[in-house]
Amino acid sequence: EQPRPIAQQRRTVPPHVAAVTARALEKLPADRFESAAEMIRALDDPGFRYEARGEAAVGSGRKRADERTDSGSRRTAILAAALAVAVVLAGWGWLRSPDSPPAPMLRTTLDLGDVELEDHSLFEVVISPDGSRFAVVGQTEDGQMMYHRTADELEFQPIPGTEGSPIHSPSFSPDGDWLVYADPNRGLMKVSLLGGRPTVLVPARDDELEPRLTHWGPDGWIVFWAGISDGRSALYRVPDTGGELEELVGEPWRAIAPQLLPGSEAVVFTDESTRSVAIYELAADTVRVLVEQALDGRYVPTGHLLYLDLDGGLWAAPFDPDAGEIVGAAKPVMQGIMSNVLPPVGRYSVSDNGTFVYGTGGTTADDASHQLAFVPLDGPIAPLDLSPRWLEDFTWHPNGRQVAFAQRPQDQLTGDREIALYDLQLENAPTVLTRAGDNQEPMFSPDGRRLVFSSRRDGTAAHDLFILDLEDDTGPRHLVLRPAWQAATDWPEEDVIVIESFSAGQTGLYLVDISGDSAAVRPYYVPDADVDRGVVSPDGTLMAYHSDETGRDEVYVRSYPEPGPETMISADGGGHPMWAPDGRTLYYGKEAGDSIEIYAAEIGYDPGPTVLARTLLRAWSSDWSAPELDPSGERFLTRFVVGRDTAGTRDPEPQRYFVVTNWFRQLERLFADGGRRQR
């Protein structure tokens, strides 16, 4: 029976689209389009006409390719339908006979409709192994939510039960009917796309297990990377039905972005610490590096290992999954793939039948380049003449002429951090003070001759305290060994350091006495809440800090060195306290929408501390970091992202996602002179 013409069902369908549909629905293969390319050319030609059991008539309205232009939103539905047909063509060879030439590659824009993307979401768009479904992580007013659609649908549909939670790294089940994803608050989750609410496979455990990056393998196993207590992480696997959790790879490796290879006896992953793609073999319980200075390795059935270089370029190398080895020279495939900086994962996804999805624009490597700037109490902001770099944890030298900070080596976006010293007057290149290990949170002694910092390196349980004498070459000395992350927040006396330390899911304040041969640590204030950023007043009588003991971060003060009753300084939220040199003003920050507001609290004593007034001093974009007040009390030092102006604004390249069907043909052409074939 001849199908009812589509124009009779919907009069608004353009004549050439109706003609394309009529020809595509012909019973005899010989009467249909010979290839996807021919079909797309017809969809792009308003003059295309077709009569049943006849030949296509080319009207005078046909235009040359160089004369055709986009017709905007009118063609959105047409392109989406073309994409759906192309995906089917890629998977099952529909509309072409076995003797027809291979379908050509086809690149289209993935229309996300009303789904809003977030810059820092992990693996926003993924495709199912058979290429028939897409899933996307979107941003809503209440948080994140997942959406999905099949290749022949035009709009993404929300997945019930995923709203309001942080969603990381969705991955399709082998049959494409389920998604597994990481929710750091709830755990490792899975949800059916055929109906039903999400279920917990592995529950999160009070900051001791926070699933992040996932992959659902082909043989009933799921692997995922998770943060565990004290700043460490590990790679795990679990049956896809739930069950016993097995740790595969722990420290010193940071095994993110995992992928189970066929057979599920090996896992390819990115080592975040060394910026390399590595492989873990379960039987041998060993890790080997496959590619250095590379991120986010993915094996594809053509027998190639895909990975990104640090500039967002995609590479492919012939790969033997049985031996777990690269067996030929790698070749560049394309440039400009969007990737996250921390953790370093690329935004691309590949189906087993060769449909390639990738993102461009949005957050780029430039967003990992920072610059320092002076912010006076009033007046214009002035960026420093220091070349952009990835940096954090900056602190003033007591002389007000130098600053120390943690930075990553130039041109490196991930991996271990080093402590550097920068002279504001000489404006020369920063001097690297320490290189071994992952170093952060520097703090000068009151006389400026020593530096304490946190470091995770050989012989440490987590990030331990180290001390460095800046006037000799003896190198850093291990100061405090504790089974917990720790960092200095103030050095008020030559022999006393204030530290914050994270243990058992909470952060508290401690005092470290370094007057003896070995450091002695005693608690200062460790309540049943997170307390950090302890700073002592200039006269040495008060400790300011921020705490969430009321359910919201607020700034408090209490007596020092022995803690007495506390006084709340901030109102309606606050953090990051900074004392003015006279001790009569306590500055603090507060997040307000897209801005960071800096307040000045005037402190009086009657006889204990009290707030006389709170004044909003100034505000800047939340893309900027919290500031540090210089020793003179006249200006702040802050950090901003390169690409944003001194108001913290910019016009980034919009995020876009593309779909390339029959993409494996590109790999075949690239390795036509050698390389692996599909297995």
Topology:
Elements lengths: L5 H4 L5 H10 L11 H8 L4 E2 L7 E2 L17 H17 L13 E4 L15 E3 L5 E8 L2 E8 L6 E2 L9 E5 L5 E6 L3 E6 L6 E5 L5 E8 L4 E8 L4 E7 L6 E4 L5 E6 L5 E6 L4 E6 L4 E7 L2 E6 L3 E5 L5 E7 L4 E2 L4 E4 L13 E3 L5 E5 L9 E7 L5 E2 L7 E6 L5 E6 L10 E6 L7 E4 L3 E7 L5 E7 L7 E6 L7 E4 L4 E9 L2 E8 L2 E8 L6 E6 L5 E6 L5 E6 L6 E6 L7 E2 L6 E5 L5 E8 L2 E11 L3 E13 L6 E2 L5 E7 L14 E6 L2 H7 L9
Antiparallel strand pairs: 1-2, 3-51, 4-5, 5-6, 6-7, 8-9, 9-10, 10-11, 12-13, 13-14, 14-15, 16-17, 17-18, 18-19, 20-21, 21-22, 22-23, 22-24, 25-26, 26-51, 27-28, 27-50, 29-30, 30-31, 31-32, 33-34, 34-35, 35-36, 37-38, 38-39, 39-40, 41-42, 42-43, 43-44, 45-46, 46-47, 47-48, 49-50
How does this model look, in words?
With 679 residues, the protein is mainly beta. The chain contains five helices and 51 strands. Strands 20, 21, 22, 23 and 24 form a five-stranded antiparallel beta sheet that branches. Strands 3-51-26-25 form a four-stranded antiparallel beta sheet, covered by helices on one side. Strands 4-5-6-7 form a four-stranded antiparallel beta sheet, with no helix packed on it. A hairpin with a 5-residue loop joins β16 (255-260) and β17 (266-271). The longest helix has 17 residues, at 76-92. The model is unreliable at 54-98, 363-367 and 644-652 (pLDDT under 50).
Keywords for this entry:
679 residues, mainly beta, five-stranded antiparallel sheet, four-stranded antiparallel sheet, 5 helices, 51 strands, 43% strand
